[in-house]
Design brief:
Helix content is 67%, strand content 0%. It has two domains: 1-102 and 237-273, no CATH class; 103-210, no CATH class. The chain has helices at 7-12, 20-28, 31-38, 47-65, 70-98, 123-131, 139-151, 155-160, 162-182, 189-203, 212-232, 235-256, 262-266. The longest helix has 29 residues, at 70-98. Helix 3 (31-38) packs antiparallel against helix 4 (47-65) and helix 6 runs antiparallel to helix 7. With 273 residues, the protein is mainly alpha-helical. It has 13 helices and no strands.
Length: 273
């Protein structure tokens, strides 16, 4: 039985991806062991160790959720989302500094690039300003800004400048998520659903296979939209959206986490349930 002081040893001893014995071992680990261990780790002093323990906690919770029902399953999914997001905060910061780019390199597109000059309206800035308000009350203002973003995501722009199209799509998806979350106390399901579709459209592009870090960020953004939609969905749909958010975060971790830990977020307890 692993000690609380060294929860990582018991899990890492089974480093064979997909091995049934490894998955069975993970399912037997009590999440409280990882929670207790995290209390003794300073994320500022030991970010790698802290992120690894959060990843393992999230992996255990994700596999446990697959065996649970009802509100217990929903709560476990929420806890897995929190743990995965905490790990991704560290791993994405590291990749911002150290990731080697291969193939396509994404860049932001500005009004100057489109030839519209300094007077052009930046729809992202406009929507960020609207979203800072307690509630998004001026629907016409929001709709106009989102239409500007949609106009920058056409098929013609994709063919003319793939990098700019991807950045525009990411901006659109993130903005729709932000507005959907800020549209009153219950949010706006339509905006969140469009955000999810937008991220999925970008992730379907084969060129994105060459830049795993950007794919990871897209999965993180999509998980945000999925999780937000889950929180305002009807109970019979909530679980599906939250589980999809967990899966999206697990996919992101499989792209940016240390290779020795990736098998934990690729595991599926359904293989031997």
């Amino acid at each position: 039985m692993p000690s609380q002081g060294k929860p990582a040893v018991g899990v890492e001893a089974h480093g064979s991806p997909g091995a049934t014995s490894s998955l069975e071992h993970v399912l037997r680990v009590n999440p409280d062991i990882f929670r207790a261990g995290l209390q003794h780790i300073c994320p500022q002093k030991e970010p790698d160790r802290w992120a690894a323990e959060q990843l393992k906690l999230g992996a255990v919770l994700r596999l446990r959720a697959q065996r649970e029902l009802g509100s217990t399953r929903t709560q476990t999914c929420r806890q897995a989302i929190d743990a995965f997001e905490a790990a991704l905060c560290i791993y994405c910061q590291c990749h911002d500094v150290h990731e080697e780019r291969h193939g396509v390199t994404l860049h932001d597109s500005s009004a100057a690039d489109s030839g519209e000059g300094e007077a052009a309206v930046d729809p992202v800035d406009l929507l960020l300003e609207v979203a800072r308000r307690p509630f998004v009350a001026d629907i016409e203002e929001v709709d106009d800004a989102i239409e500007l973003l949609r106009a920058s995501c056409t098929r013609d722009i994709r063919h003319a400048d793939f990098n700019a199209w991807v950045m525009n799509m990411i901006n659109l998806g993130c903005t729709l998520t932000l507005v959907g979350k800020c549209s009153g106390p219950e949010g706006d399901a339509y905006q969140l659903e469009e955000a999810i579709d937008t991220f999925r459209a970008v992730l379907s592009e084969r060129k994105l296979l060459e830049i795993p870090y950007e794919r990871a960020i897209l999965h993180v953004n999509m998980a945000d939209a999925l999780g937000s939609l889950g929180e305002i969905a009807f109970p019979d749909q909530r679980q599906e959206y939250l589980e999809s958010a967990v899966t999206s975060l697990a996919t992101a971790l499989s792209l940016v986490a240390p290779p020795a830990l990736r098998w934990l977020v690729q595991a599926d307890s359904g293989a031997f349930m």
